[in-house]
Amino acid sequence: LDIRAWAEYVVEWAAKEPYGFLKTLILALMPLFLASAALSWKLVKMIEAREKEQKKKQKHQENVLKAKRLKTD
């Protein structure tokens, strides 16, 4: 496995045929882009769900404190 020869081949290919090289590179990286987008979307949904749950808990705590204050009055 000669990495130097392979690297020279890739550089030569990119110099001789830049559009073909870029097309191949983008096609090779497309699954990674799609996976990144899917994971980012999933992370956003998880963060939104956690924030919604925290707001719900906070509202519940406020209502409990309000009810305790009304009982003591």
TrEMBL record:
Signal sequence extent: none
Gene source species: Nannospalax galili (Northern Israeli blind subterranean mole rat)
Protein name (Swiss-Prot/TrEMBL): Small integral membrane protein 15
Region (Disordered): 54-73
GO cellular component, one term: membrane
Pfam family name, one: UPF0542
Compartments, record wording: Membrane
Record membrane topology: Single-pass membrane protein
